[in-house]
Amino acid sequence: MKRDAAVAGGGEAAMDGLMEAVAGKRDEVAELAADLIRIPTVNPPGENYRDCAEFLGERLGKRGFELSYVRAEGTPGDSDRYPRWNVVARREGARPGPCVHFNSHIDVVEAGAGWTVDPFGGVIRDGKVYGRGACDMKGGLAASVIAVEAFIERFPDFPGAIEISGTADEESGGYGGVAYLARQGFFSKPRVDHVIIPEPLNKDCICLGHRGVWWAKIETRGRIAHGSMPFLGDCAVRHMGAVLNAFECELIPALAARRTAMPVIPPGARSSTLNINSIHGGQGEDFDGLPAPCVPDSARMVIDRRFLMEESLDGVKAEVRGVLDRLAETRKDFRYEIEDLFEVLPTMTERDAPVVQAVAEGIREVMRREPTYVVSPGTYDQKHVDRIGKLKNCIAYGPGILDLAHQPDEYVGIDDMVDSAKVMARALHGLLGL
């Protein structure tokens, strides 16, 4: 009787059966996460992407998914040594309907120092799976796969289509992954209707989007001279010091006073921010011996400006240029150049969007609490789904604690993966209209 109800798609018994199916895969989700961790897809430089894509594809291919392996040729970092491979798996339903897509990035950052376990050992211990990428985001990928597999077992005659993708390069901007695929139409209607990205933002939170970002390089110019007679030259580093002082005394306090209505976490990120990413001036120090006695004629700074829905990108840029232009008017011989490096507008999916409502209902049913709606302080691949794919019905939802990402002894809780898989399975049920 349960099987008949499940096939029909409705009723409390059908949903109970789906939840039991996910719960019964607890050991499987842990092993899948561990197996994914054991493929060290470190970016940069972008190692073992093909191996990871094929591992995922082989599993899904056995479950009736059609596979597309897509190399993002010509994107940043792509080379014959480090090709940017992605996999997109699609399973068509028994009749027409919407498509729900689960997207996870397969790349991870370097392990770094300070680990007490093998960062690529996929250690399962004390209810947790440890390793680089466990939290960000191979645990989320594993949870989405288990959710989909359990759903197909219970509802083999579902309508519409289900997609799962494993994509490259999110940690370096996503240009060899979701951005490339979006340009090929993989994240646009009519192919896809709903996108869930299982990033680690706590299992009872729905991430609606992210702040905007503008990266730029500022260069100040001077005139070289002998270091024993700096008065005969013009020190570009001192000019850059004036820029730093102006940012510190004028711009950064002004940004800190701004607040957004976006539910950004942590609360400190609800203001605009400016990070000095790097500063370089004069001769390098990567050689033996002393540097030449010269007045530096060039200094460079990279800034990372995060901005809010209430701000415009043009206004953000004009604000920085205004500081530099004032220095050019008031400081003798001050000259500068500025170059755009990277920019993304803020994005935030509406709370009444179908994908938000479906995941929210899943959280209520599985965890017996109201979901928390959040916005990420930094960007993730939703930016490409929105900006290139023109698909607004996209959120991030997955297991894991964001604070653990990129840390030594990174882990994901097995119970958290199971609970998130239950939520994703319920959301899938609702979004496909069962």
TrEMBL record:
Required cofactor names: Co(2+); Zn(2+)
Top-level taxonomic group: Bacteria
Keywords on record: Cobalt, Hydrolase, Metal-binding, Zinc
Residue ranges of domain Peptidase M20 dimerisation in the record: 209-329
Signal peptide interval: none
Keyword Thylakoid: no
Family, as annotated: Belongs to the peptidase M20A family.
Protein known as: Acetylornithine deacetylase/succinyl-diaminopimelate desuccinylase family protein
Native source organism of the sequence: Chelatococcus albus
Native organism taxonomy: Bacteria, Pseudomonadati, Pseudomonadota, Alphaproteobacteria, Hyphomicrobiales
